[in-house]
Each structure stands twice: as C-alpha cells, then as structure tokens.
Specification:
The chain is mainly beta. The chain contains no helices and ten strands. A hairpin with a 5-residue loop joins β3 and β4.
Length: 128
Amino acid sequence: MAENPHQTTFSGPHTTVTRAPTPHIGRRSDGIAIFELHVVRGHPTVIKYKWSSHRRSPQKFTAWFRNVKTQEHYKAQQTVWTSDGHGQLKVTSLPRIIGEYQLVLTQYNNYSNDYAHSSNFWIRPGDF
C-alpha cells in the first residue's frame, strides 16, 4: 500500500484497515469523501468503506475498482445511495486480475467523473 503521511494503516493476516483523517468537504466539491477503507481477506475478499457527504452531495453514485497500472475501471456496484454512509463490495466484479487497485466513487454510472478515490490496496491471487 502506498505510504501517505495523512493516513493510518493497520495490517493483520486477514484485514488491512486504512483510516484517513476526517475529510474536509468544501462547498464547491462534489461532496463525497472516503474516510475509511477495510480490506477483509477471504474467499472472496470484501472491501468495506465509509464516506462522508453534505447536503449538496448527489443522492447516488457508482462504485468502481480502478486498476492503478492500467487505469481500467471495473464496476463494483452501480447504485450506491449517498445517505447510507457505508458500504461493502466483493472483489468478484474484477476479472481475476491481481494487482494494485483503488476504490473510486463517481457520478452515477460515469467513471470519468470522480467524486472520491481511496488509497491504493492490493488484490492477491487468493482473494477471489
């Protein structure tokens, strides 16, 4: 995982937890920020995440896995309701391609308009 001086990472045999500082959501932003990400290793591995929003945030968005090396996007969940504040995704939406990924939250069904993205995390062969 990439080193970031503004986040805390804890790793164990089955879980990697990344906690970022409480995000600042400005009036001009899209109003969604990922502030916690858990990689829970298993068969399949599950990504648990939390986000914050404000009253101007969109009502829904789409969650994607982005391969850091190729920049390809894989739809993890088409509709995520902003008001929920947390979610979890199985890595089964990936085509069994191991590597370094980010969780990306975007405008509904439009991966070219990012709202937020996580720090990098690794998907390994045993995660599927």
